[in-house]
Amino acid sequence: MLTDSASGLPLADWAGHRLAKLADIAASPAIAALNGASLLGERATLNHFRVPGLQSAGGGCRLLPARGDWIALNLARSDDRELLPALLGSAAFDPQDDVAIARAVTQQDATTLLQRGREMGMAIAMLGEQPASPARTVLSHGLAAPPSAKAPRVLDLSALWAGPLAGHLFWLAGAEVTKVESARRPDSLRTGDPVLFALLNQGKANVALDLATAAGRAGLLRLIEQADIVIEAARPRALRQLGIDTDTLVRARPGLVWLTITGHGASGPAADWVGFGDDCSVAGGLSAELARVTGQPGFVGDALADPLTGIEAALAGWQAWRAGAGCRIGLAMSSVVAQAWQAEARNDPARWEAGLRAWAAVEGAPFPTVSRRTATAPVAALGGDTARLLPC
Amino acid sequence: MKPGTRLKSAACDTEVMVIKCGSGTIECGGVPMGEAKPAEAAVLSSDFSGGTLMGKRYVDASGAFELLCVKPGKGSLAVDGTALVTKDAKPLPASD
Questions:
Q1: Does B92 sit within 8 Å of A185, measured CB to CB?
Q2: In angstroms, rounded to a whole number, what is the distance separating the alpha carbons of residues A81 and A97?
Q3: Using CA atoms, how far apart are residues B25 and B19, in angstroms rounded to an integer?
Q4: Closest Cα of chain B to A285: distance in Å?
Q5: A160 DSSP 8-state letter
Q6: Closest to A164 in 3D by CA, of A199, A113, A125, A209
Q7: DSSP state of B33
Q8: How far apart are CA A310 and CA A163, in angstroms?
Q9: What are the 10-residue block averages of pLDDT along chain A, 392 residues in total?
């Protein structure tokens, strides 16, 4: 097995240290057996990605020069391109044509694009921006409960990578985990990347709910009532618009730990910004740091904000649950990235910079190989446990 | 109207960004929207008072119009008197 440092994957050491801490407080041999590089690089290894330059490893996000700074524009969703004429204030280009988009972006002011894109709900970031929120913050306090000796019951309302990874780490540490998916809008990773989906969601029970119906929302509330830890990774307004007030739920149940994972924060204007792994890594200053060290901006790792935040969320959640401290904890992906690389840069600047130079030097080469994990437990079908866990 | 244009409601707090625009008058709360807010607020029509939701995209039946709500308000959106409806939530990326 490659050690984290030998993997050539920046921040693998940081991930390894956080996992070691989680393994220690959860007394979990399964977590102790993980390695940081593996969790950061397994999606890239499974998908045979290459070391990225100005286009992200997964291909959805690009760094584009605009007036005054570089912009990271993530067009990973199928209808993001429909928004480009409005973002760029012109219908005079083909939104499917990446060269035409890049040309249009060069003529625009970077800060204006960033503000307008965020207002429009696009996953966009600027090379030189500072994260808007702290990496980890207590959003509201609930009531304390006597710490339990039993493993926690975890309700995972999240999709894609960061939140499901946190749920997966809880499962590895012995928790009973139930994943909730929207029946109308299931986790797109299920079909988009079934092997990664299986790794992250193996062993979790699965409930499918139609949250547009009163019955679906009532089902969700019943599941929340039985949970010790909830993982949720939607923008705060999504639950509010469903009539669900997270802070009230946290105050209603002594000891309930609610993890809110966002791209850029859960309060103020940043609560409405969208963020995915690659653009959040840019917003966390990682690509600017690469540019400072090597002279060239580029993406570092594969959507690093996702796995880093998943690990950090599991650690924060387990610590709070063990302490019996009911609360809602916010984790902001862009800031988790900033916290991780700044810690590494402070810890050993020469080694950190050498790592970034080595990363930039292998642009275009196959992604560093990390030890591959395979799913060992079954993956529940969408809604496979709905009838059992929500009997009428 | 250019995509990216911001329009304000004359009758409530709603503000939208034009994503797609056909020919017709865009209204909120029963009165035409404009790039500037009128000095005196117009009266909100009870027929167009369902409210707008932050971040939702509103479309007409023909697909010619698409508006993104960037500030919510009490009025509801229409084109030439025909109410717009919300577009389904964006599908998430297959992977991000």
A1: yes
A2: 10
A3: 15
A4: 19
A5: S
A6: A199
A7: -
A8: 6
A9: 77 97 97 96 96 97 98 91 93 90 96 96 97 96 89 97 98 98 94 97 98 94 96 91 91 95 96 96 98 98 98 98 95 98 97 97 95 94 97 86
- C-beta atoms of B96 and A88 within 8 A: no
pLDDT at A77: 86
Tokens of A152: 């926690």
CA distance A40 to A59: 17
Closest CB to B3 among A89, A189, A235: A89
Residues 6+ apart with CB under 8 A from A115: none
| Predicted local confidence at residue A2, as pLDDT | 55
**B18 at interface of A, judged by CB pairs closer than 8 A:** yes
For B:28-47, CB contacts with A below 8 A are none
Q: Please report the domains of chain A, with CATH numbers, ordered by start residue.
A: 5-50+132-269+300-389 (3.40.50.10540)
Tell me what pLDDT residue B91 has. Answer: 66
Task: Provide the pLDDT for residue A241.
Answer: 84
- Among B3, B20, B91, the residue with its CB nearest the CB of A77 is B91
Tell me whether 0.85 is exceeded by the ipTM.
yes
Tell me how crowded residue A230 is: count the other CB atoms within 10 A of its CB.
25
In sequence order, which ranges of A97-213 are alpha helices (DSSP H)? 98-106, 110-119, 162-172, 189-192, 194-201
Q: Angle of helix A12-25 relative to helix A305-323, nearest 10 degrees?
A: 20
The token pair that represents A188 in the structure block: 């797109």
Specify whether the CB–CB gap between A155 and A178 falls below 8 A.
Answer: yes
Residue pLDDT, tens place only, B32-87: 999 999 999 999 999 999 999 998 999 999 999 999 999 999 999 999 999 999 98
| The two structure tokens encoding residue A2 | 């490659």
Rounded to a whole number of angstroms, the distance from the CA of B7 to the nearest CA of chain A is: 13
* Alpha carbon of A269: minimum distance to chain B alpha carbons (Å): 11
Contact A191 B95 (CB under 8 A): no
pLDDT of residue B90: 65
Q: Is the pLDDT of residue B93 over 90?
A: no
Q: How far is A145 from chain B (nearest CA, A)?
A: 36
| Interface of chain A toward chain B, CB-CB under 8 angstroms | 43, 58, 60, 74, 76-80, 82-83, 85-91, 116, 119-121, 123, 159-161, 185, 187-189, 191-193, 196, 235, 237, 241, 272, 276-278, 303, 306
In whole angstroms, how far apart are CA A332 and each of A162, A164, A308, B1?
Answer: 11, 15, 11, 37
